Structures are given as structure tokens and as C-alpha cells.
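ok posting inputs for the pyridoxal-5'-phosphate job
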Amino acid sequence: MKEKEKKYGLNTLAIHAGYDKDKETGALALPIYQTSTFAFSSVEEGANRFAGVESGYIYSRLGNPTVAVFEEKVAALEKADAGLAFSSGMAAVSAVLLGLLRTGDHILCSKGLYGCTFGLLNLLKDRFGVEYSLCRMDGEASLLEALQPNTKVIYVETPINPTLELVDLSMISKMAKERGILTVVDNTFMSPYLQRPIELGCDIVLHSATKYIGGHGDVVAGVVVGPKDIMDNLRLTTQKDIGGILAPFDAYLLVRGLKTLGVRMDRHCSNAQEVAEYLSKHSKVNKVYYPGLPSFSQYDLATRQMEGYGGVISFELSGGFDAGVRMMNQVQLCKRAVSLGDVDTLIQHPASMTHSVIPIDERKAMGITEGLIRLSVGIEDVSDIIDDLEQALSKA
Ligand SMILES: Cc1ncc(COP(=O)(O)O)c(C=O)c1O
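and the output
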């Protein structure tokens, strides 16, 4: 972050960090540098750029001015030194894990993980001999027991999808630091507006920028932020050589989306709070998982660690799988769709959709019951969202 930006609040940074105006034209909106390559004014200039003795662009897989603004903006919001942008959240996850781990290393992960991250861990284990284990991380004792002499990285999602269980980031980062282990946090569900793991002592933060960072459901992207030395290393290894880079137009959309991050997140949170309270009183709903409900088992941790409770709610229908299917088929305003973090309300039924290939017993062990519904509450008028849920629930 630039020195003058250090005094700014998060909403100001979301609008101004990383870009002032175009140096040549004064254009206030970020130009889209839709170019694959950059011409050198002399062979010496080209040679100096390749040698790293002169800054400047070479080729868009190695860096692009539109993408650089996005990277700088997210780094500023997450209070990190530097950032790297990727073509998807999974490209970001894989660049980080491949960049930090080698054969014989162990990575300790939170018990719930995004399915494709889990798939990547299995690929790393089977093909490259990187061990992993999962841990509930519900206290120092369970973490101590799970750590191994070859643990190099602790990898955490919090809140964990779909039960929204939380992991105490200050506790994890303190224990990791004492042992020289790096802590990586997938902050997708919160966005930097609601949770900043680096301020809590964690080292690296990544996002599926497809979600709240973009916010409008029109781009698939990922981003990683952290210490400059680690980001420089990833830029020259797993980003450059694997090549899952972000396109300039997508970076433009993300920068545009980020400008309204704060107002969107405030509305996602207030809408989700009202919807969660409505659902928790509904006769056809057994249980509601939302960190903002005082009945949520980790409400105190949520209040301490997060600056808002987020826009995702899960709830269990008492009528099980069939009720889930019936309700899902009745919604009108809420869109039957996976993903989360869009301005539109999205609703999905894990047992028939995202988690349907997982055997029922394994699903249960993950807390995914047959009637569980996940709702990513959008920023529409909350009364319209509740009316839609009411009419769909009446037929569930
Ligand atoms: C928590 C989390 N991490 C990572 C990803 C992967 O992101 P993408 O779909 O942008 O590759 C997702 C996608 O849903 C996610 O929910």
C-alpha cells in the first residue's frame, strides 16, 4: 500500500487504492490494457526489463497494468504487502499450494474445505507425495495433536461451508508462528470488508474473487495476497509457469465491483440477519446456521473475529430431502444456482446438487443433512426475499 493510503478507511481504499488516474489521458475510469505484449523502445530497455533492473511490462502473463491495479487494491484492503491475480479461485489455490509445498511436506487443513480444494489435496498426495490431514481446529489441544514435524502450512476456511463453523484465526496464527509454519486463509465467504486474517496474524489470504469481490456474478477469478517476498516468488514460479493469469477485462470488472464492496457487504449482512431471524421462527425449519444469531454456537468468536456476519445462511428443513426438492422448485425471485456473493439471492440444495455425488453417510458426517438448504442472500429488498421464501416454504 502507498504511504498516503495508510490513513484511509476500507471504503476509501476500495475506490482509490491502486489507481489515481491514467497518466497520459487523465481517464478516471481504469483503462483496459487489452494487450498480450508490450513494445520496447530499444533492445537495451528490453534487456533491462528481462534482467529485472528496470521496471516495466514485457508480456501480459508476466504482468499487465489493468490486472496490477486489481492486485494492488485487494492487497490494500487485506492489509497485505502485495497481491497476485488469477483466472479462478482454484487457480489461486493451486498456485499457492504448489508454490509453498514440496514432496514430503505436510499441510494441515480445517475440517471443512471447498470440494475442489479437497480434490487438489488428493492430487498432490497421490501424484506428488504431499501429505495432508484435516482437523476440527476447535482449540489449541486439537491443533497441537494434529501438527506434525513436517507441517509446513496450515490452511483454513472460515466460515466453513455449509455449516458456517468458524476457526479462531488468532489462535491458529499464534501457534503457527511459534513453529515457523505459514498460515493460509481462504477468505472467500467474508471478503476483506468483514474479515482481515493478516491483521489477526495469518500470512497469506486468498479468495475466489468470483464471489463477493466481483459481486455481480459476471466473472470467474481468484486473488492471493501476502508478504512481498512470498508473492514475488509465486509470481515468478507458479503464476508465470503454470499461467492461470487473470484477463485484463476481468480485472476491470473486479475493480469496478470492488468500488461498492462496503455498501454491498453492509446490505448482504443486514438482509441475511433478517432472513436468518425469519427462518429461525419458521415451523418447517429445524435449524438455522448463521453466525449472527445469538443462538449460533460460536456467536462470541464471530463477533470478535468478523466485522459482520456475512451473507450466507444454511438451514435444515424438517421434511428432509423431498421438502428440499419441493422448496427449491417453488422459488421464483431466489435463483436456483451454486456460487455465492452475487447481488442476486442464490439458493441451492447440497444433497441434490453440489454434494450429491458424496455418499449419504459421508455427507451426514460433514453436517450436510438431506433437507439442508444454502442461501446466499443478495441485496434485493429483504421483504421480497422473505416473501419468496415464505411462498416456497408453504409448499415444501
Ligand atoms: C471457499 C471457496 N474457495 C474457492 C473456491 C473456488 O473458486 P472458483 O470457483 O473461483 O475457482 C470456491 C468456489 O465456490 C469457494 O467457495
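notes: The domain at 3-31+63-258 is CATH 3.40.640.10 (Aspartate Aminotransferase; domain 2). The CA atoms of residues 108 and 133 lie 5 Å apart.
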